[in-house]
Structure prediction request, 324 residues.
Amino acid sequence: MAILTVREALQQALHEAMQDERVFIIGEDIGHYGSTYGVTAGFLEKYGPERIRDAPIAEAGILGLATGAAMAGMRPIAEIMSVNFSLLAFDIIINHAAKIYSMFGGKFSVPLVMRTTNGWTQLSATHSQSFDAMFAYIPGLKVVAPATPADMKGMFRAAMADPDPVIFIEHTLMYGIKGEVPDGDYVVPIGKSVLAREGRHITVVTYSRMVHLSLQAAELLAQEGIEVEVVDLRTLRPLDMSIALESFKKTNHAVVVTEDWQSYGTSAEIATRLYEAGFDYLDAPIQRVNFREVPMPYAKNLEMQVVVTTERIVAAIKKVLNRS
Prediction:
């Protein structure tokens, strides 16, 4: 067992993936610059320009090349620096990578992993968005968003072994988070949620960076005698609600925390599934905590009014429990 940051865990997973000669990485600034967040630092020197391919600013070209290479038997990793830039490649992702297996009757698979990031920190309106729900809406894609270094490494390994295109979502504010990572050969399966914290009064269902803020909220509320159970979904498609439903049946109260807009977003799907399968156990309306529904402002004081905070999670939990 080693203590690694999210960045270090991803680097380990990428180095292990590169042992397969079919694997190459393509993206903007991933070679000489080592990528915007330093994940591929040193990779160009180790693996050479044939396998670490610096691309121009052409997201559709990056994903188009990667999709074709995957169909031809390669195992490409396409890095899209920010999820905001993936909009330029949505036709390739949605109408090609996600559809090819079905449209060709299973004769071609697309074993492609697209690494991308969510994040904000004064990046303003067009660089602070979350498209998790848009990806998760598409049959043919798998969408994962791990929260811990161990899951980052284990789920990336699972993504590299998967025959389908996987959207692998990282968070810019999580690269420095540390945690235990198992030694040796291990894989964390796609489509399996996990219990991040046990509790008996209320269930918080979440994923990615919001797991950490939810755990912080749980620690604060524990001082007031409120025991919060936190469920980390880890995967958005396929969505495993089994642990969340078992928890909800126990606590009879729930809050869904996601770092995106509330309307038509991932929290809407999660809450609906809780209602559909767990209505008989409901003791209070489910609350959701999300971005405020405005384009993200640049000014820091305004930005902090939009984003999800620990304080907002605490307030939502108290509201559900009628403890506000």
About this structure: The chain has twelve helices and 14 strands. The radius of gyration is 20 Å. The mean pLDDT is 97.
